[in-house]
Amino acid sequence: MAEPLLRIENLVRRFGGIVATDNLSLDIAKGELHAIIGPNGAGKTTLISQLIGQLCPTAGTIRFAGQDVTHLPAWKRSHLGLARSFQITSLLPNFTAADNVALAAQARDGHSFRFFGNARKEKSLRATALAALERVGLAGRADVAVSQLSHGEQRELELAVALATQPQLLLLDEPMAGLGATESARMVKLLADLRKEVTIVLVEHDMNAVFALADRITVLVYGRVIASDVPAVIRGNEEVKRAYLGDQHVVTSHG
Ligand SMILES: Nc1ncnc2c1ncn2[C@@H]1O[C@H](COP(=O)(O)OP(=O)(O)OP(=O)(O)O)[C@@H](O)[C@H]1O
């Protein structure tokens, strides 16, 4: 059988006495949308940070696209096709939407930000930026400054920034956070479209979104995988209900 796109084996991350990732093993197949859920402090963000290369594991291995990337710096993983969209807005507020995406595309091409003045005028970067904006429904907002975009639009722009690096695997950390009902519905639709093109690992507290989108769901508690399966099985899992889903009645409303 072909190796999965991402293979995490026996991953451990300690912060002093806290074991934030506790001997975690997980495979992500190419083409799937894999959600990671769990209570606050379960270690979801710590896991994503190790996958992208912003945090070193204490032990264990991470293989991506057939290569051991455990000790590769973040920029090299980005070149291999791993991209993260941030929980905390990392956009440049005084630059336009298109400029923010062009910067990401330029960084992927290996150029320094110092040359951005030229890059701004460069046609191919602008074209890449517009294509990414189109994919997230922001083509009409290309020349608007980030500070003038709504919160929902900024979230969409973060996705466009990640897409501009042409990822094979997109790691999304709470893309629905802070969105209202209409904006959340837009984001779900957008992710439903994107998943056709790119493998996605989605960390999310919005269970309506998770159960509407995921092919498989992994549940973390205290840094451990307590269940990893298709949504219907996760929904019926007693341990998961006790640990996390019990008080999230919304989860029963989606099929
Ligand atoms: N830099 C750090 N230093 C010390 N402890 C940390 C650090 N980062 C995370 N932790 C601890 O590791 C554990 C996992 O935290 P993490 O933020 O990964 O959880 P999470 O599942 O993403 O939570 P949330 O759903 O609230 O975002 C927590 O106990 C947290 O306090």
UniProtKB/TrEMBL annotation:
SUPFAM superfamilies: P-loop containing nucleoside triphosphate hydrolases. InterPro entries: AAA+_ATPase, ABC_AA/LPS_Transport, ABC_transporter-like_ATP-bd, BCA_ABC_TP_C, P-loop_NTPase. Keywords: ATP-binding, Nucleotide-binding, Transport. Residues 6-247 form the ABC transporter domain. Pfam families: ABC_tran (PF00005), BCA_ABC_TP_C (PF12399). It comes from the Bacteria. One of its GO terms (cellular component) is plasma membrane. Gene3D superfamilies: P-loop containing nucleotide triphosphate hydrolases (3.40.50.300). PROSITE patterns: ABC_TRANSPORTER_2. The keyword Nucleotide-binding applies. The keyword ATP-binding applies. GO terms for molecular function: ATP binding; ATP hydrolysis activity. Involved in beta-(1-->2)glucan export. Transmembrane domains (TMD) form a pore in the inner membrane and the ATP-binding domain (NBD) is responsible for energy generation. This is Amino acid/amide ABC transporter ATP-binding protein 1, HAAT family.
